[in-house]
Amino acid sequence: MSNLAYTRWKDAYPIIRNEIDSIHDNFRNDVDMVDQQMLALYERGQIKEMKHVATEFSVRSGDNLHKHWLNFYGKLFARFRDFYIVENDPSNTACNCKVGEEDFSDAWKERIIDETGDKYLCRDELNLPEFMKMNGSLRGSKSQVW
Q1: 53 and 14 assigned to the same domain
Q2: What pairing do the DSSP bridges indicate for beta strands 137-138 and 133-134?
Q3: Which residue range forms the structural domain that includes residue 133?
Q4: What total number of domains does the chain contain?
Q5: Residue 146 in domain
Q6: Per-residue confidence of the chain (146 residues) as pLDDT tens digits?
Q7: 0.70 exceeded by the pTM?
Q8: Residue 8 phi/psi, 5° resolution?
Q9: Which residues are CB-contacts of 30 (< 8 A; sequence separation ≥ 6)?
Q10: Do 59 and 78 have their domain in common?
């Protein structure tokens, strides 16, 4: 989860924070209920049963959290994979989704161009296939940052 979140922090953090808060709220409620059950067992002297309730609750909670978090990761990965943002859109009958793309800032594009220098620069546009030409500008030239 963290590797995905680090690369898409601005987009993923609010969703992850909301999920964590929801999990914590539910867990607090569950703990309160189990505490009441265990207190009742304790007051009746049923210590062995109380320990069993605590153990079962702990194991079940851990297993459920692991399954939930793995499922949540799958949803988050599908939403933010490969610099896309995929959101639910029931009006789109093809996929029930809306797909957007996270663009890189002009400053970042300029940095890449500056760091790579002429390494990928094509100096002879006449020998380029048509699909690589851009209205007289070469892709990767500083005048055309795509």
Answers
A1: yes
A2: antiparallel
A3: 106-138
A4: 2
A5: no
A6: 777 777 778 888 999 999 999 999 999 999 999 999 999 999 999 999 999 999 999 999 999 999 999 999 999 988 887 777 888 889 988 888 888 877 778 888 888 888 988 777 766 666 666 766 665 554 454 444 44
A7: no
A8: -130, 40
A9: 57, 61
A10: yes
